[in-house]
Each structure stands twice: as C-alpha cells, then as structure tokens.
Amino acid sequence: MAATQTKFVNDVEACIDRIFETVGKKIVFGIPLALGKPNHIANALYLRAKQDPDIDLTIITALSLEKPAPSSNLEARLLGPIVKRIWDGFVEFEYMKDLRKNQLPPNVTVSEFFTKAGGYMNSPHAQQNYISSNYTHAVRDLIDNGLNVIANLIAPHPGGDTRLVSMSCNPDLTVEGFEKVMAERKKGRKCMIIGQMNSNLPYMYGDAVMKTDIYDMILDDPKYDFPLFSVPKASVAPADHMIGLSVSSLIRDNGSLQIGIGSLGDAIAASMVMRHKNNEAYQKALAACNISGRYNGLIQKIGGTGPFKKGLYGATEMLVDVFIQLYKNGILKRKVYDHAGIQELLNNRVITETITPEMLDLFVDHHIIHERLTQADFGTLMKFGVITGPLGFRDGRISWNGDSFSPDLRDEKTRELLNNHLGDHLQEGVVCHGSFFIGPKDFYDSLNNMPESERKLFSMTGVDYVNQLYGDEKLKSLQRRHGRFVNAGMMVTLLGAVVSDGLENGNIVSGVGGQYNFVSMAHALEDGRLIMMVRSTKKSGGKLSSNIVFNYGHTTIPRHLRDFVVTEYGIADLRGKCDKDVIAALLNVADSRFQDQLLDQAKNSGKLPADYEIPEAFRQNTPERLQKLMAPLKAEGYFKDFPFGTDFTHEEITLARALKGLKDNVASCRYRTVAGIVRQFFTKPPTAILPLLRRMKLDLPQCNCIRERALRAAVVYALRQSS
Asked: Which DSSP string corresponds to 395-441?
C-alpha cells in the first residue's frame, strides 16, 4: 500500500473539519462492524450532518453496538445496575439513538449489512436501507455505493513505536477496504482513510499490523479512549447443551474448526472440553443420550470421541471467547504455517515441528528450497526458524562472522555451518486465523494479558482470507484439513434449505454475513463438512412452533447445499441424500409434538411413500425426556448454565429467568397470570425471596403506592412460578 503524510490530531472536531475540506459535503462513511468503529469520529460526523442539512451523509456498517434498553419498569430495575457495571463509559452512537426513535434527519442514511439478531424488526429505516451482501462481497458493495471515507479504531504499538498500529479486532474488511479506497484515489476520486487510537484495544498481530502512514489522519488523545463494548456470556439452555454434545462428536482431531458467538458456541466448547479432559464422563454422556448408539458409524467416519491429541486449528471470521477457552484447555493447538510446501509435509507427517538436520534434505526433495540456495530459499529457512542468525545472505553467498560460504548444500563446510545454526522448532505457526472479535470483558483481558509470543498465535487477517479458498487454494485447503464449519440457522425446511437471516415477509432478522461463504467452503474442501445447528422449536407470543417446517418463503442456504443439521434431538446427515431420505432424517430430529403434522405434509406432497412411518426410536423427542437424560450428568457438574463463567450475579440470573417466565406467561395465559399476581397482594413473601426483592428495590414498597405493590406482587409471583 502506498504511504501518505499522516496528520495526527487531538481534537475530533478538527478531524471532521478536514474530512469536509478534503471530500466535500457528500460523505459515504464506511466503518467496520462491532468493536472496530471509531465512535467519537462517527458521532461527531453524524452530529455535524444533523446540524447542517446541506450535508449528505450515508453511514455503511454492520453491528452498531448498543447498551441494553429496558422495555418495562421491572426490566429497568433489573438492568440498571448491570448496565452501570458492564457498560459504564462506553461511547454510544448518536445515530443509533435517533434511528431507534425514528428521528434520523432526511439527509442521513444508515445502511447495515449485518445486524444484531432481531434488532431492527421495528425499524422501517433499517429494514428499508439494509444491504444484503455476503461478507466477502461487502467491500465491493461499499465501493459501488460510493465509499469515500473509511475509518476504524486502532491500537497503539505496545512498545511506543509510532510507525506501527494494529487494527486489532477488525482487519476483516478494512485491509481490503483500504486497498480499494487507494485504488479509487488513483482514479482521481477524493477519499480519506482515518484512524482513531484506543489504548484499550488488544494489539493483535498478523495482517492487523499496519504502518501509520497508510492513514491520512489519526485521532490520538487519551481523552478519546473508551472501554470496549462487552458482550456477557449467555446462559446455555439444556437444548443447546444437547446440540453441543452432538456437534462435538463430529469434530475430527488434527482438524480445523469454525464456530460463532453465543450459547450454542459455548455449548460446543463445553462438550469438547469434557471430551478432552474428562473423557470417561464424555463417553457416559454420549451413551446416556444415545448419541454414540445411534450415530456410532457416522461419528467414527466423520468425527471422533477421544481426546484431542493433535489438537485443532481455528479458521473463523469471528474470534470468539470459546477459542480462547479451547486454547487454555489444550485443544486449540494445531499450528499452521504460511507455506503450502511446509504445511503439506506436516499434514503428511513427513516432518514434525521439531527441526532436524534431515529437514534441509527433505525441503530439497519436496522442492521447497533448491539444493543451491537462492536469496528466497535462505529467507524461507530464516522465516520459519529452520536456521537462525546471525547468518546473512549477500551477493549469492552465505555470510557468517566475516566469512563467506557457498550456497550449495552439498558443500561440507556450508552444511556444517547450517547444522550448527539449526533452530529447535518451526517458527511463525498460528493456532487460529480470525478476522474480527467481540466478547465479554474477560476475553479482552485474556488477549491483553498474553505475552507477545502467545498473542501472535492468534493471527488477525482479512475476511477474504478466512472465509473463502480463492487466492491461495492449495495453502488454505492444507491448513483447513477436516474443516468443520459450524453455523446456526433459525429454521430448516424438510427438503434441507436453511433460513438464517430473514423472514418470508422480507423483514431482515440479522444478515447472511459469512454463513454462505462457510457453507460453500465446506462443500469445496474434500474433507470439509458443514454442521448447521437449529433448535427444534421456538416460542413467540406464548405460542410454540416447530423450526423444522415443510416449506418457507425465504431461504438463506439453498437445499442443494444441505449437509449436517443438528437439533437437540440428534444428527441428520443430509449430504448427497435423495429427498425422501432427507425428509426422513429431519423428521427423526424434529420435536415429536410436530412430527405428525410434518409427516402428513410430506406425504400429501408426494415426497414420502404413503406407508412411511417415523421409527419408534425417534418418537420420544420431548424436552422432558432430555431433562431426564441430562439430570444425572448435571448433578455431576456437567452441562452448566454458564460453563465458562458469567458477568452476572446469582441474584440477577434468578431474577432474569423469573421475569422472562413472567413475560411468557402473560403472553400465553394472561388471565391466569394476572390472577396469580393479584393473590400475591395478600400473601407475605417467603424469606428466601427478600434479597431478590431488595435487588429490585421492592423490599419495602410504600404501603400507599399501589404501583409499587403491584410490581412487588408481580416479582414474587414470577419467582414462585420459576421455583
């Protein structure tokens, strides 16, 4: 990338002034998703546009992070202290405040290509300006929309080197975006690249490291530091744990893994840790839940149930906390190298990471280096630590201690010199490639507290590297051996199409993001597999419905790309199967309360034989049966609600569950719930509930305040109902 004269500024308004001076009043402002946004710059630019109607501002981004907002008095009482504790100091986006109130000025457009799930269901502006784009096409679409200012949050060099910064959490689109913007600049377009320093960002390595002279301007002042947005770990429901247990058995040791954020990811990681560190309990769990019995042949062919002796490599667009948990537990440990020849030798067990004198000959035999070393060959040996300094290569010869040696490996003196300078182990290996990250506070702390050598094992790079094979197919295919690409869907049709990002009325729920990319890659890799996780049911407005449906008016992943579908009731292997076998497999993992309806629909459409019956072994797919199967293992300390800890107190967890139950009860049986609450007006709360009422500031409500008494009665009823 071409260098520029970087201007460092310590005032955000001066930064905004220079943007308008350089680009003019029509701004298409591209900022990264999630943590990578320069919040102060985004706010100042938006507020300037809000004040000046002559400014035409379009903000294109994804995942604009927001503090939780309560929707009721009770939620406010619960959330208030939590928001203060977890998100205090986070700089909120002014454009999001106005978007939520449907008060964006007419000269401002906010377009996102990926959103928090369900976050924009009631926002006409967001729904109408959503850009549906594969993650790997996002930069292309930004350029097509006229991008002329791109900005991101950056981390200062830990050693104080002002020539280097790190994109840290977001090289995903920014690396490619910078290249495209500079190409546009060469065509004569007025464009800018801007950074905002934040010392709280972990300084990550790989392609995230940039020279400061790539930026036209950097906002750099301690007053603009702000805490990173934290995403507390979600509670893992029993159904999620069952999905995680099944998925963990499909992951091959010495392979590769991609998973995302949320309770399903935590469930998978928890079962993987159990498999690795408590294998006897793991085998017991597989047997108790009949996973090993039903799917033994499939598991042995595709995955495994033993400890991860060789370990896994992570190739994931989103570096999430569970990868750190897998690393800490000795599972994420398979290193990959940025050289196809070396990676192939490692995969085929021709070499190990331990360096021996024979490695030089093996490198020659497999055409990694020439027998007569070139400058490039010498650089390869030094880069990967096969030989170590202080050797040099000058004028076609090897230099050491003032002497010059032949580059020919057949020369005895040369060979003796190199043997005396062999390294111990291969260098430059990484255990995970990621493109962006977001997570809980202890995740950021883990990254910040890692020594440099350990942090370099997590290499941050562009989404065009992680999410597709194009560009270096051989190397990526070798690195991603036995790739397991684990994604989540909202629904799956009986013919294997997956619905993940939107509804049939056109409303966007989240966005396709990188899901299609990983699906495509799973099919492109000879030993890759896609694992799509779908909870069997959902409850909305108090009504339960099946997430396995006969048909649906929207599709994210087409049926011809079907592979594994995993629900809490088991594994459906759909790849290469005819339609009737696909339907039969999905019926086996559907909730039994909906199986008959689905069976009839399939028969009536002629997609199943009229005499087909669901096997009796799959007719007991109920939550009650799962609870019964899991109870003994939960009693032994497995399948925890928060397997990797939580930011919430026990009281907050108890209250949150009770209030969620209350909300569901109001939706499903309003009159019975209201009657139950009324009864609590005349009942003294149990002593055990008093601390929870105190947490909600309802322990001593004013006797003459009906509203306070009603709130207290509602909380008491909710807590009693949730036991």
From this structure: TTEEEETTEEE-SBTTSHHHHHHHHTTB-SB--S-BSEEEEEE-B-H
| CATH number of the domain located at residue range(s) 7-224 in this protein | 3.40.1080.10
pLDDT, tens digit, 9 for 90 and up, residues 508-566: 999 999 999 999 999 999 999 999 999 999 998 889 999 999 999 999 999 999 999 99
Single out the residue of 320, 321, 32, 29 nearest to residue 171, CA to CA. 32
CA distance 717 to 589: 35
For residue range 162-216, what is the model confidence (pLDDT) as tens digits? 999 999 999 999 999 999 999 999 999 999 999 999 999 999 999 999 999 999 9
- Given this structure, which CATH class describes domain 238-335+431-618? alpha beta
Residue 263 has pLDDT above 60, yes or no: yes
What number is the average pLDDT over the span 274-285? 96
The strand order across the sheet containing 483-488 reads 205-206, 458-460, 432-437, 313-319, 256-258, 483-488, 529-533, 564-567, 570-573
Residues in the chain: 723
Half-sphere exposure of 443 (CA within 13 A, CB side): 25
SS3 34: helix
Question: How far is the C-alpha of 653 from the C-alpha of 670, rounded, in Å?
Answer: 24
State the pTM of this model.
Answer: 0.94
For the chain, how far is it from start to end, CA to CA, in angstroms?
61
Beta strand extents in 440-551 (DSSP E only): 458-460, 483-488, 491-493, 498-499, 529-533, 537-540, 543-546, 548-549
Give alpha helix (H) positions in 574-649: 579-588, 592-604, 623-635
Rounded Cα distance between 175 and 466, Å, is 13
**Rounded to an integer, what distance in angstroms lies between the CA atom of residue 7 and that of residue 321?**
35
Read off the DSSP letter of residue 99. H
- pLDDT (0 to 100) of residue 681: 83
What digits encode the pLDDT tens for the residues 85-133? 999 999 999 999 999 999 999 999 999 999 988 889 989 999 999 999 9
Per-residue pLDDT tens for 407-456? 999 999 999 999 999 999 999 999 999 999 999 999 999 999 999 999 99
CA angle 717, 718, 723 (to 5 degrees): 95
Please state, in angstroms and rounded to a whole number, the distance separating the CA atoms of residues 411 and 483: 43
| Residue found under tokens 């060789």 | 310
d(CA 668, CA 339): 59
For the chain, the domains span: 7-224, 238-335+431-618, 340-419, 650-721
Burial of 401 (0-12, 13-18, 19+ CB in 10 A): exposed
Give the C-alpha separation, 568 to 532, whole Å.
12
Give residue-wise pLDDT tens across range 212-224.
Answer: 999 999 999 999 9
The answer to whether residues 140 and 155 touch, using CB atoms and an 8 Å cutoff, is no
Cα separation of 101 and 123, whole Å?
Answer: 9
Nearest by Cα to 583 from 496, 508, 514, 504: 496
Average pLDDT over residues 251-275: 95
How far apart CA 562 and CA 575 sit, in angstroms, is 6
Cα 500 from Cα 114, distance rounded (Å): 12
Which residues does 365 contact at the CB level (< 8 Å), separation at least 6? none
How far is residue 29 CA from its own chain's centroid? 24
SS3 460: strand
